[in-house]
């Protein structure tokens, strides 16, 4: 299944919720709740033609009604008999991809489902994102969509366009087509974005495909609370397949059921761009909180017929009810569509950022929709369901270690710790907790964590050497609390589309990690939209608050930092994915080396530094270098341990940065901040080969902490490891390179 928050942690949180949240209906037939259903349905992918897993989830919830399933995977519940025959139907599927080709070197190429239709930014927002590929057995295989490395972009006049599906490659950590197929992925395997449902504040839910699931949730909730004895005539409640692929399930249901009344419950649909009117965008415009919406192709707000009947029901029960634009529920097809009854209406709720990973719905709107359906179906309302707050993200660092942890254990712990530039306290504590008990590092005024090991006699001519890896990761900082409760933030350090338009976390001063969404720029869904660029790019973040007071009640303040959620994911073989491998891999190598060297390193003068503020311009290293230079204690050699941004990707030019993941650590012979003397490159290579450590060397982009020491007489010998898709949620490494890096740090400490 798609990876979720820890099940045990989630269960513990739910156990603390009031029992009424999970009370069964009066009939005792359908357990669960709106929040529980929404979480499960959102986190169960269902692209067109691949709805079987979601259909099974729905059938399991409504099994007391003996649901039927046709050969399209439509799920059908029938209550009562006779006239009138009423059909309430919601679609199950979401847009996604299937495997269209597997390259000889182990990358997966994609075809979108649906194959046609306008979905603004859909391809771009998949770039460099964690995804899952489903095997024929139902197993989910982790992977990432390849993305451009920002460090390799300068100088490229025509980089690949991420909106072009020709430039979409999925990396599962394989090196050949045979390895991909051995994992279980093959042609036609569905591919979807890894997702988690987040609650924003007390009133909103956010996740990819949440706008494709609210109808299913509302219909299951209807069955949870329905009293069949109150249903007049025949009520058919159905969950339709392949709505995005020509409304095939809906068409089948209309032909089979021939209803007198039809309520279609699903997202509102924007009209495709019209070349004759390029400035006209016809789409849903009402904001979340508008209540139940009726989709209309004119969006005039003039109710009549069946829509007016439902409005009267809503008004008499104080349920907000409005009209908004929507395209037809059945798109053009090869054949004439089936006839819809005269009494047909399209019900929906507003979604913010539709069809993007940042999609949001209102919990109150969802409850209003479910209430109205109950009243329509049986004439009365059973009960009100509470909003369920989902668990917060927490760090899970290792601690109190008595034996050396593995490199992967160290890396997992550090990767899943959040700490952006100028907010490195969590990482500093995590590193200290991972060091052996004999190690007693100090923290300087710049926040750098410093550990000196080894002993040398006063007359010794052993060179002083320093290893530096940085603690910080890229992220954003809250600059202002806006009057509407949104946060104005700045920062970045990566491609805008890797972060904006996705879920985020606000990290507060009191240690909370609060779910949020990074809003897309104005005009994101208009033809010709171009992404804004720049490291200081301002963006808006939605935390579910609607006033500055609500923001303050959540404990959020100016100066708090924001990141994109991350998780360590093991890919095929020895490869792994996570955001912030830059520079958690370097930090891990230093921690590992300290364990290997032990407390009694003789005749050596070695210092390990975990530095701050590297992503802002070598801030911590610069302050440390200036202090040591003023004291006459600048090290003879500095080995800066940081990423070697590799062009080992189908998107990158092989002109430079051409090192391969899995082939060993890398000597960063040339980058933007330093050039290593050739003889020292050869010396590192010689020591590596003498110790049977795989090694590469080359040219890459970016700078390194060691260059801050050059002006004080130190020599910077930068080392790294090959990294795919730098500064993105899709970063990929090979763990063998991490092992090689930690081994060379040990070898240099003993032999330089």
Walk me through this protein's architecture.
The chain has 752 residues and is an alpha+beta fold. The chain has four domains: 7-94 and 208-272 and 281-378, Zn peptidases (Aminopeptidase, 3-Layer(aba) Sandwich), CATH 3.40.630; 96-193, Elongation Factor Tu (Ef-tu), domain 3 (Beta Barrel); 407-473 and 579-751, 3-Layer(aba) Sandwich (Aminopeptidase), CATH 3.40.630; 475-523 and 533-563, Peptidase M42, domain 2 (Elongation Factor Tu (Ef-tu), domain 3), CATH 2.40.30.40. Helices cover 22% and strands 22% of the residues. The chain contains 15 helices and 37 strands. Strand 27 (569-570) and strand 28 form a beta hairpin. It starts with 6 loop residues before the first helix and ends with a helix.
Annotation keywords:
752 residues, alpha+beta, Elongation Factor Tu (Ef-tu), domain 3, Aminopeptidase, 4 domains, eight-stranded mixed sheet, elongated, disordered N terminus
In helices, the fraction of residues equals 10-25%
Tell me the Rg in angstroms. 28 Å
What is the helix tally? 15
* Overall pLDDT metric: 89
Query: Which class do the helix and strand fractions yield?
Result: alpha+beta
| Second-tier CATH architecture of the largest domain | 3-Layer(aba) Sandwich
Shape: elongated
Distance between the termini: 49 Å
pLDDT < 50 stretches: 1-28
CATH superfamily of the largest domain: Zn peptidases
Looking across the biggest beta sheet, what order are the strands in?
Answer: 1-2-12-3-13-16-14-15
CATH C-level class of the largest domain is Alpha Beta
- For the record, the count of structural domains works out to 4
- Share of β-strand residues: 15-25%
- CATH names the topology of the largest domain as Aminopeptidase
């Amino acid at each position: 299944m798609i990876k979720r928050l820890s099940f045990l942690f989630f269960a513990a949180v739910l156990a603390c919720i009031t029992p009424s949240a999970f009370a069964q209906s009066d009939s005792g037939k359908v357990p669960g709740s709106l929040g529980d259903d929404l979480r499960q349905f959102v986190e169960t992918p269902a692209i067109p033609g691949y709805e079987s897993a979601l259909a099974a989830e729905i059938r399991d919830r409504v099994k007391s009604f003996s649901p039927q399933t046709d050969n399209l995977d439509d799920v059908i519940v029938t209550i009562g008999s006779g006239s009138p025959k009423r059909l309430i139907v919601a679609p199950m599927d979401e847009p996604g991809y299937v495997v269209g080709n597997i390259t000889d070197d182990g990358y997966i190429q994609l075809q979108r489902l649906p194959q046609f239709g306008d979905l603004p930014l859909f391809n771009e927002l998949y770039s460099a994102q964690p995804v899952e590929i489903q095997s024929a057995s139902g197993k989910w295989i982790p992977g990432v969509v390849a993305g451009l490395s920002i460090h390799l972009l300068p100088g490229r006049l025509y980089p690949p366009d991420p909106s072009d599906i020709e430039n979409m490659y999925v990396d599962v950590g394989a090196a050949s087509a045979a390895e991909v197929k051995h994992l279980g992925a093959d042609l036609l395997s569905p591919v979807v974005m890894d997702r988690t449902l987040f609650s924003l504040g007390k009133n909103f839910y956010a996740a990819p495909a949440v706008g494709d699931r609210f109808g299913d949730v509302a219909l299951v909730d209807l069955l949870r609370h329905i009293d069949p004895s109150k249903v007049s005539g025949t009520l058919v409640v159905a969950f339709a397949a392949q709505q995005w692929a020509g409304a095939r399930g809906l068409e089948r249901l209309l032909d089979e059921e021939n209803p007198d009344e039809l309520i279609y419950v699903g997202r509102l649909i924007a009209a495709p761009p019209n070349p004759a009117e390029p400035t006209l965008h016809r789409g849903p415009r009402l904001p979340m909180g508008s209540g139940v919406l009726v989709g209309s192709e004119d969006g005039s707000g003039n109710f009549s017929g069946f829509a007016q009947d439902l409005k009267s029901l809503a008004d008499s029960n104080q349920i907000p009810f409005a009209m908004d634009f929507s395209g037809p529920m059945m798109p053009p097809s090869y054949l004439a569509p089936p006839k819809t009854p005269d009494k047909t209406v399209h019900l929906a709720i507003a979604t913010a950022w539709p069809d993007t990973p940042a999609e949001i719905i209102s919990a109150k709107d969802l409850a209003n929709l479910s209430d109205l359906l109950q009243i329509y179906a049986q004439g009365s309302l059973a009960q009100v369901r509470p909003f369920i707050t989902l668990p917060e993200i927490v760090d899970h660092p290792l601690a109190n270690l008595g034996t050396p942890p593995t490199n992967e254990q160290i890396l997992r712990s550090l990767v899943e710790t959040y700490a952006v530039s100028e907010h490195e306290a969590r990482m500093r504590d995590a590193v200290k907790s991972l060091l052996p008990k004999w190690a007693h590092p100090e923290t300087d005024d710049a926040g750098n964590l410093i550990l000196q090991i080894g002993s040398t006699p006063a007359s010794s001519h052993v060179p002083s050497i320093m290893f530096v890896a940085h603690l910080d990761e890229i992220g954003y900082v809250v600059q202002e609390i806006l009057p509407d409760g949104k946060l104005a933030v700045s920062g970045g350090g990566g491609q805008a589309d890797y972060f904006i338009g996705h879920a985020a976390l606000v990290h507060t001063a009191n240690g909370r990690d609060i779910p949020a969404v990074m809003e897309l720029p104005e005009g994101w869904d208009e033809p010709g939209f171009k992404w804004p660029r720049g490291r200081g790019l301002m963006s808006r973040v939605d935390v579910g608050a609607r006033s500055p007071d609500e923001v303050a009640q959540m404990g959020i303040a100016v100066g708090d930092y924001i990141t994109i959620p991350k998780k360590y994911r093991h890919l095929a073989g020895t490869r792994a994915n996570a955001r912030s491998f830059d520079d958690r891999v370097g930090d891990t190598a230093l921690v590992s080396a300290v364990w290997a060297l032990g407390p009694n390193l003789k005749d050596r003068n070695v210092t390990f530094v975990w530095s701050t503020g590297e992503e802002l311009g070598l801030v911590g290293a610069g302050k440390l270098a200036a202090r040591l230079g003023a004291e006459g204690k600048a090290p003879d050699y500095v080995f800066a341990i940081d990423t070697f941004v590799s062009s080992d990707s189908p998107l990158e030019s092989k002109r430079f940065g051409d090192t391969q993941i899995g082939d060993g650590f890398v000597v960063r012979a040339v980058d933007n901040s330093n050039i290593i003397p050739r003889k020292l490159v050869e010396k590192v290579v010689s020591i590596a080969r003498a110790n049977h450590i795989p090694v590469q060397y080359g040219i890459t982009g970016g700078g390194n902490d060691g260059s801050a020491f050059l002006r004080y007489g130190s020599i910077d010998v930068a080392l790294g490891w090959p990294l795919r898709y730098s500064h993105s949620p899709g970063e990929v490494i090979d763990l063998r390179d991490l092992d090689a890096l930690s081994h060379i740090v040990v070898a240099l400490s003993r032999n330089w």
